[in-house]
Amino acid sequence: MKKTIVALAVMGLGITGAHAQEMVVKLGSVAPLTGTISHLGKDNENGARLAVEDANAKGITIGGKKVKFELIGEDDQADPRTGTTVAQRLVDAGVKGVVGHLNSGTTIPASRIYDQGGIPMISPSATNPKLTQQGYKGIFRTIANDVQQGSALGKFMVGPLGAKKIAIIDDRTAYGQGLADETEKAAKAGGAQIVAREFTTDKATDFNAILTKIRATNPDVIFFGGMDAQGGPMLRQLKQLGVTAKFVTGDGGCSPEMIKLAGEAIGSSAYCSMAGLPLDKMPGGAEFRDRFKKRFGTDVQIYSPYAYDAATAMITAMQKADSVEPSKYLAALKTSAVPGVTGNVAFDEKGDIKEGAITLYQFKDGNWVAM
């Protein structure tokens, strides 16, 4: 009887020891999970979640311990104040890195919280140049910025679209206004005249007043800096007003949801840009699309491949440094070159992606088609 008890005790110690060798590592994911662009936010979170699940399936060992990564999803509601609140919550929860936020307007103020907490953050979708111009050493993005995107949009409108008169609308967010500003610079440099510059909000649904003013200027092209939740209804109202100008928007409207919201009003004179390659032209795009659909039962919206690559780059840097501590793996993150779904993931000295591509799309046959 005593021998049995001793044996059980020894077995118990062995089980405890085995469990002690597994280390849970928390990673944060922040995006708007409620509200008008929650479809984009959930897309981001699912991209990061798939990367975490893939890492766990590999049985990664760091510092001599098997690691189980755990993703903590937070909803910032696309609101800057909420963004800083949830950022602090993640720092307090002891996360070792953060994938997010989605919007530039939430990412920029939240980045200060992460910097103060010593937590690396990689945004898969915040494109405002200011994000990586603040001098924070642990802030990165896996997507091209608005200087690159705005330049491409301005040149496209003046060149292939032949626009001489351009009207610009933005939603007054860090993203929408920032992209509109860069697009305006490039359009002016190309010789176009900006005949109107109007603004709305990222919560608005009625644009008739500003669109009526724009109609009077008879523009060749209308550019909108903002998200699909406003872009879709805006296109509907433009059609109702009989405006025939071409419509161009950035990556915030380059989504399946934009097509759904605009309905028949979208027409063949609608264009958008994406800070990246088309999904089918990404090195791992086709496989990612199929796996994503199988796992989550929904199609890729826009940014999930970039969120996947952000989480993967972070985890790879931990492996390279053989540590999950930010102070130790940050150097590896800065110098790593990781083959990702979207392409080669490597950052410059500011934290911007080195090989950021821009692709232009036209609406054709029910979809956004790369030009």
Describe this structure in words.
This protein is an alpha/beta fold and 371 residues long. The protein has two domains: 2-144 and 282-345, Response regulator (Rossmann fold); 147-274, Rossmann fold (3-Layer(aba) Sandwich), CATH 3.40.50. It is 44% helix and 20% strand. The protein is built from twelve helices and 15 strands. The strands form three sheets. The protein has a seven-stranded mixed β-sheet, with helices on both faces. It starts with a helix and ends with a strand. It comes from Parazoarcus communis. InterPro entries: Leu-bd (IPR028081), Leu_Ile_Val-bd (IPR000709), Peripla_BP_I (IPR028082). Belongs to the leucine-binding protein family. Pfam families: Peripla_BP_6.
Order of helices and strands: HEHEEHEHEEHEHEHEHEHEHHHEEEE
Number of strands: 15
The CATH superfamily of the largest domain appears as Response regulator
What is the C-level CATH assignment of the largest domain? Alpha Beta
Percent strand: 15-25%
Q: Indicate the overall shape.
A: elongated
Residues in helix, %: 40-55%
Low-confidence stretches: 1-20
Secondary-structure content class: alpha/beta
Helix/strand layout:
Blueprint: H1 2-20, E1 22-31, H2 38-58, E2 61-62, E3 65-75, H3 80-92, E4 98-100, H4 104-117, E5 121-123, E6 139-141, H5 146-158, E7 165-170, H6 174-189, E8 193-199, H7 208-215, E9 221-225, H8 228-240, E10 246-249, H9 256-262, E11 270-274, H10 285-296, H11 304-321, H12 326-335, E12 338-339, E13 344-345, E14 359-364, E15 367-370
Parallel strand pairs: 1-3, 1-4, 4-5, 5-6, 7-8, 7-9, 9-10, 10-11
Antiparallel strand pairs: 2-3, 11-14, 12-13, 14-15
Helix pairs in contact: 2-11, 3-4, 5-6, 8-9, 11-12
GO biological process, one term: amino acid transport
Protein name: Branched chain amino acid ABC transporter substrate-binding protein
Keywords: Amino-acid transport, Signal, Transport
